Amino acid sequence: MSPPVRRLPGVLRLLAALMLLLTVPVAARGLSPHGNPVITVLIRGVAVTAEVVSSPEKLYLGLSHRPGLPPGHGMLFMLPEVAVQHFCMRDMRFPLDFLWLKDGRVVGVTVEVPADFPGTVTSPEPVAQVLEVPAGFVAAHGIRVGDPVELRP
User: Fold this and answer.
1) Which has the closest alpha carbon to 76: 112, 113, 37, 129?
2) Torsion over CA: 10, 75, 145, 123 (sign)
3) Which of 107, 119, 113, 109 has its CA nearest to residue 146?
4) CA 110, 8, 103: angle at the middle one, nearest 5?
5) What distance in Å separates the CA atoms of residue 39 and residue 52, rounded to the nearest whole number?
6) Which of 4, 37, 63, 72 has its CA 20 to 30 A from that of 79?
7) Residue 139: Cβ within 10 Å count
8) Which residues pair with 42 in a beta bridge?
9) CA–CA distance, 8 with 70 (Å, rounded to integer)
10) What pLDDT, on a 0 to 100 scale, did the predictor assign at position 29?
């Protein structure tokens, strides 16, 4: 078992992200119809309206069972620690693009993952933030590894 000190940086990043969300009044940032805080994620200037999830239950559920997402919308997963992340398409009804984020940059993209994909989608390196968007977003906006990412309440 790792000593708690090794997990501290990931915990600090999560706490910093949560503090950012908590410092903006709920009315100003809004909540999604699913009760998740909503922020704007800018990727090289391209805006995504993103639901933010961080609780174990919300991280597990993700976008499962939803019929789709409007263009320009997504879900930002704020994971508890920087690690190689593994996602599945459990109970998904539409295909996704995954943007793997770290230190304010896109560090990887996984595109056009079918809703019925039976395997695991894995980050190319350790990350603590993952943005899921409708399939085709990455191609439509020319998103590339290295692009800057900014979170705005």
Assistant:
1) 129
2) positive
3) 107
4) 35
5) 7
6) 72
7) 12
8) 47, 150
9) 36
10) 58
DSSP string of the chain, one letter each residue = ---HHHHHHHHHHHHHHHHHHHHS-HHHH-B-TTS-BEEEEEETTEEEEEEEE-SHHHHHHTTTT-----TTEEEEEEEEEEE--EEE-TT--S-EEEEEEETTEEEEEEEEE-TT--SEEE-SS-EEEEEEEETTHHHHHT--TT-BEEEE-
Longest dimension (CA), the chain: 44
Structural domains present in the chain: 4-152 (2.60.120.1140)
Amino acid identity, position 75: M
For the entire predicted model, the pTM comes to 0.82
pLDDT, position 9? 53
CA 118 – CA 135 distance, rounded (Å): 17
**Length reported for the chain:** 153
Reading the block at residue 66, the tokens are 């939803």
Question: pLDDT for 13-70, tens place per residue?
Answer: 444 444 444 443 333 359 999 999 999 999 999 999 999 999 999 999 999 999 999 9
Q: What is the DSSP string of 65-82?
A: T-----TTEEEEEEEEEE
